Amino acid sequence: MEPFLRKRLTFLSFFWDKIWPAGAPDDSMPRFPDAGTDAEPEPPAAEPRSPPARAQLFRALYDFTARCAAELSVRRGDRLYALKEDGHYIFARRLSGPPSAGLVPVAYVAKATPETLSDQPWYFSGISRTEAQQLLLSPANAPGAFLVRPSESSHGDYSLSVRAQAKVRHYRISTAADGGLYLQKGRLFSSLEELLTYYKANWKLIQNPLLQPCVPQQPPRQDEWERPHSEFTLRRRLGEGYFGEVWEGVWRGSVPVAVKVIRSADMKLADLAKEIQTLKSLRHERLIRLHAVCSAGEPVYIVTELMRKGNLQAFLGSPEGQALSPPLLLSCARQVAEGMSYLEERRIVHRDLAARNVLVGDDLACKVADFGLARLLKDDIYSPSSGSKIPVKWTAPEAANYRIFSQKSDVWSFGVLLYEVFSYGQCPYEGMSNHETLQQIMRGYRLPRPAACPAEVYLLMLECWQDSPEERPAFAVLQEKLGAICSCLHPALM
């Protein structure tokens, strides 16, 4: 009889639902007006009604916007089936909205049960009266924010907590003998959802409007640079730097990258944190570009763009580098000066500027790299500990003798880099030990002009090697002078 009447007299569907509530569809009961924003419909009939054997049901606690094609955007309240859990992410299929799947950070989801109650944005299980007050009075919530929680004093009942200006009011939701729920005797409701719908429309009965579900406390902001190790595949070892190995790798199976692999034994964690923060803050076409960081667990990965021709020192010694004309060498030097001028503006000292720490890409694009020794300057100089390793042949006398580094000591190193460039990668002060080099410099000795070096460029080298740091030119001046020399020798390179 029930199917026949429902089919023939559909306009009386509300009446049939009252008579045969068990046969009513899932969405026939009155719903809380705001639920359409955060709650989600049941999956389409064509989809499976139960999860795969290995799947786990989750609920999104917060909004999350995908930052790449592999991630899945979700809204608070979305239901998800986690097909795979992998460290800080789950690979999940979304049940609400258009079918889609992807990675979602675990900090943004929680395991859920199939019951409707756990999916509601206004239901907070496992929190106390005090915690409810703290949440509702937080800056994220305005007057009219509310939540429902299990009652602390009466097992099986609930509490409705509502923010009213600068305080929170709590109301007991009791359970009647027949299972109905009520705030006031004589007004029974079959579900919390129905009760909230009624009191939202008739809020004067409790003297507090129910405007929007409580916004939960957000998790710590996820670092946009942080990625899991599993996204990177190391292919070929390129060399070993100051703090670890450098590898050619692939990101997500397709993007070529360079990966600096660092272990805690190779570097102090405080130094590593400073290096990463410095890398994140820098953006310039003449500096190596950071792609990602993997700092959760060891080894730590610092992932940058891949410069296929390797470091400038090795490139200059290769057949391709040996064939470069002086104007092309000048172009390489000018690009380095441009990158260092940017660091100068940011009050950052490199401390290890040398051809080995400049990387070369296609079309002879040169970029300054390896900020493992870089430090943001709070004053005009930086003094490291006396036990620091120093590349003496590239280091200014005041830095080698007194451990005082500044932007002007970087200028001295740039002069040595100019020598490397125009000698096609020859080691400076060849045949001298570090001690002999420092002694000769203090006596006034300076490196000779390489055969391929224009006289104007050698004069710039000598300016970089002034005894007094104050007399050395700024990188902005060096960039300008190199540009002028380059335009005279080969205007097509400008």
TrEMBL record:
Skewed-composition ranges (Pro residues): 42-51
Q: Which EC class heads this enzyme's classification?
A: transferase
SH2 domain location is 122-214
Enzyme Commission number, as recorded: 2.7.10.2
The superkingdom listed in its UniProt entry is Eukaryota
Q: Where does ATP bind?
A: K260
Residues annotated as domain SH3: 53-114
Q: Which InterPro entries match?
A: Kinase-like_dom_sf (IPR011009), Non-receptor_tyrosine_kinases (IPR050198), Prot_kinase_dom (IPR000719), Protein_kinase_ATP_BS (IPR017441), Ser-Thr/Tyr_kinase_cat_dom (IPR001245), SH2 (IPR000980), SH2_dom_sf (IPR036860), SH3-like_dom_sf (IPR036028)
Q: Which reaction does it catalyse?
A: L-tyrosyl-[protein] + ATP = O-phospho-L-tyrosyl-[protein] + ADP + H(+)
Residue span(s) of domain Protein kinase? 232-493
- What family is this protein classified in? Belongs to the protein kinase superfamily. Tyr protein kinase family.
State the protein's name.
Answer: Tyrosine-protein kinase
The UniProt gene name for this protein comes to SRMS
